[in-house]
Write a structure and sequence with these properties.
heterodimer, A: mainly alpha, 8 helices, about 65% helix, B: alpha+beta, three-stranded mixed sheet, 5 helices, about 30% strand
């Protein structure tokens, strides 16, 4: 299993993909160990009412990624690319579920059921998508960016406390926070911009 | 599409976004080995395929080198490739690597294990699918001998003769299956188009929905056989993967018709969008059954369907399915 830092480093990620394409088993192991948690993070937000589908969606996402590995060009983070595929698979599952729910037992469409099951209302979907994308984006940031952003904006810790946690000077912590924000914006834009892409 | 956050020199919306999303929940326990097992299988298969291609390229390079010494002799003495493996499902993944070339007089055998199928494409354009427990000989790009089991033929315009236990079937633009039954009789099932069958001294033409049964003495009996339904299930399972992404809805429906034996009845207007452009299918239908793929794709296009025997009628659904209440 490779230990090299990967997430967010374009060259590392491209190298990893090339090693996988070349048949390097350790690269494959690194790939699944690094990115499967990100996919689980993303999928669990959307599939909290369908935990039984989680494994299938993750497996299908990983298989789809392997099959189209050559199409990853490194324009964005590999994780964001994978989240884009996972988004499609989650959407596919939810739509299939919706279609199945809509079929009455006699094989005709029950129009009353088309109105909107709770978990498919567009507002709910959009909020879930936002949450899932933000959480997976935090996971995709190089450490400790994701943690810093949560400390700062969710725990509302002052920079001084963050600096102490990281054993840095306040100035260095402030600089790290700036870079974390910049990184978040970039990865989030790439992840969110892949909405609907397969 | 989600909106990205604002540039950093404006009031920072990251705080609001993170607060709206809330803290990350602990990850649920998951079994990495289980989750990645299918991907590992797909990756190994892909690597095997690439290695085979690489070896083939090296072999080709070696052949080219040899060709500088004795090109003409080599060329005339080597059996030419007449077919390529398109898909294989079975217990021995390396038995028929996808993309491998098959020469004339190749014998192809699938074991009688369930879920063992093979699909090959002949250089003449014909595509064959072998059921489990089948053996054929690729005599040439225009002749296949069925020795045991069943073969499904998607015929190209070129001529193809399928020989099986004394019968010869030639197509007239069609999809059909030839099977040697356990009693030695040969059954030719026609799903689409026409097939000319010769058995002994008798020759007849079969149409869609007919079966010709040739007995050991050469007698040929013609009966009815639905061109759709469970009896054709194995041909669907042995089919190469259909890459729906980027295909037009019309092409997708043509594929559905070919794989199911259904006759699609659709208003051509429904296959075009509001800009009068062909509706395009986006995404993958891998791992979906044909019905699931049909549900998914049509639903995405705001269409529904009704199936009556072999008649598939497509109709518009009232309103957008995803519209909020």
């Amino acid at each position: 299993m490779g230990n090299e830092p990967l997430i967010g480093d374009r060259h590392d990620e491209l190298r990893l993909v090339r090693r996988m394409a070349g048949g390097d088993r350790s690269a494959f192991d690194t790939f699944v160990a690094t990115y499967t948690p990100v996919l689980v993070r993303y999928a669990q937000v959307h599939l909290r009412h369908h935990p039984e589908a989680m494994a299938d969606v993750i497996q299908t996402t990983l298989v789809a990624a392997i099959e189209r590995l050559e199409s990853f060009r490194g324009e964005g983070p590999l994780g964001a690319w994978l989240v884009g595929i996972c988004r499609f698979q989650v959407g596919t599952f939810l739509r299939r579920r919706q279609v199945r729910d809509r079929w009455a037992t006699d094989g005709t469409i029950d129009l009353d059921q088309l109105e909107a099951p709770e978990n498919l209302q567009s507002e709910t979907l959009e909020q879930r998508e936002l949450t899932a994308t933000i959480h997976s984006t935090l996971d995709l940031l190089p450490p400790p960016y994701g943690d810093i952003l949560e400390w700062k904006y969710l725990e509302e810790l002052p920079v001084k406390t963050i600096a102490q946690r990281l054993e840095l000077s306040p100035k260095a912590a402030e600089s790290l926070l700036t870079r974390a924000r910049r990184s978040f914006r970039r990865v989030f834009a790439l992840s969110a911009g892949r909405s609907g892409e397969s | 599409m989600l909106k990205p956050p604002h540039p950093s020199n404006e009031p920072d919306p990251i705080a609001e976004q993170l607060r709206a999303a809330g803290p990350r929940s602990p990850l649920p326990p998951f079994d990495l080995e289980h989750l990645s097992a299918p991907a590992l299988e797909a990756w190994q298969h892909k690597v095997d395929r690439q290695r085979f291609r690489r070896r083939s390229m090296m072999a080709l390079a070696a052949t080219i080198t040899l060709a500088t010494i004795g090109a003409w002799l080599l060329w005339t003495s080597s059996p030419a490739s007449i077919a390529t493996v398109e898909a294989y499902s079975g217990s021995q993944p390396t038995h028929f690597p996808v993309g491998s070339a098959l020469g004339g007089a190749s014998r192809l055998t699938t074991s009688s294990q369930p879920k063992e199928w093979l699909a090959v494409r002949l250089a003449s354009g014909h595509r064959l699918r072998l059921d489990a427990g089948t053996e054929i000989e690729l005599v040439s790009a225009s002749r296949v001998d069925l020795l045991v089991g069943a073969v499904y033929i998607e015929a190209a315009p070129a001529e193809l003769a399928v020989h099986a236990a004394g019968t010869v079937s030639t197509h007239l633009g069609t999809r059909y299956a030839v099977r040697i039954n356990s009693n030695g009789n040969v059954a030719i099932h026609v799903r689409e188009g026409h097939v000319r069958v010769t058995s002994g001294q008798q020759t007849t033409e079969l149409d869609r929905g007919q079966v010709g049964s040739a007995e050991a003495d050469g007698t040929l009996i013609v009966g009815a056989f639905p061109p759709y339904g469970d009896a054709w299930h194995w041909t669907r399972q042995a089919a190469p993967v259909f890459d729906a992404d980027g295909q037009s809805l019309e092409a997708f429906l043509a594929w559905v018709a070919a794989e199911s034996g259904w006759l699609v009845n659709v208003d051509p207007e429904l296959l075009r969008d509001q800009h009068d452009q062909p509706i395009e299918v986006r995404g993958s239908i891998d791992h979906l059954t044909l019905s699931e793929a049909l549900d998914l794709v049509l639903e995405g296009a705001g269409l529904g369907y009704q199936l009556d025997r072999d008649q598939l009628r497509i109709y518009p659904l009232p309103g957008e399915l995803d519209a909020p209440p």
